[in-house]
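Lesson 9: reading folded outputs for more than one chain in a single document. The general rule is that every protein is listed as its sequence immediately followed by its structure tokens, and records are never interleaved. Here is the first one.
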Amino acid sequence: MFAKRPFSEGEIVEISPALVLKTEFDALPELLKSYAFNWTALTGAPGRQALILGYGSMYNHDNPANLRYTADAREGVMLYIADRPIKADEELTINYCSSGGLPVSEDDAWFEQLGIDLIKKRE
């Protein structure tokens, strides 16, 4: 996903509907585990995972990412917010490994949990 226009830091880039599932992560079918967001961690609602619809499910990983995300349990949506100024045609990214939708993480726990070999960017 790439920005069609520039975004300012703090600007909402997208509001995506969330399909909230009443299940623990381990109970999800294997196919869904790499797509589900931990709705419990994001909202405090116990035993919930969410599949994010719209473009929200298509953002690639980066560390640091240029977007952060936050869940709105009342509205049942995920908000993607520019964490820094983003230029037109720049790839929009989230951090798959961060806690609570932050743009930076210290490890690759999400990839390790799912047994995915992370391809590192060349500097």
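And here is the second record, again sequence then tokens.
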Amino acid sequence: MLFGIFRISGHSMMPRLNPGDRVIASSLPYFFSKPRIGDVIVFRYNGKTMVKRIKKFSDKKIIVAGDNSRDSLEIKPMTLNQILGKILFILNT
């Protein structure tokens, strides 16, 4: 995915991203460098497109979580190929 626009629908990334915000993501940054802790990414998980922050790496797996720990789903460690892109811009509503 070169570029994609996604609409935030949940509360798990508040206060950084709010429901209704639109974000622009791209896979281009990961052609030049590996994902890093702190990156906010768009990824596929259980048939859904989600947005979370990379928290750590463990045994070639990526561990992600939402910024709002009171309203964030538990996501199992995932692989690099599940990442669709890195959030580049936030288009607030």
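What the second record shows: The chain has a mean pLDDT of 91.
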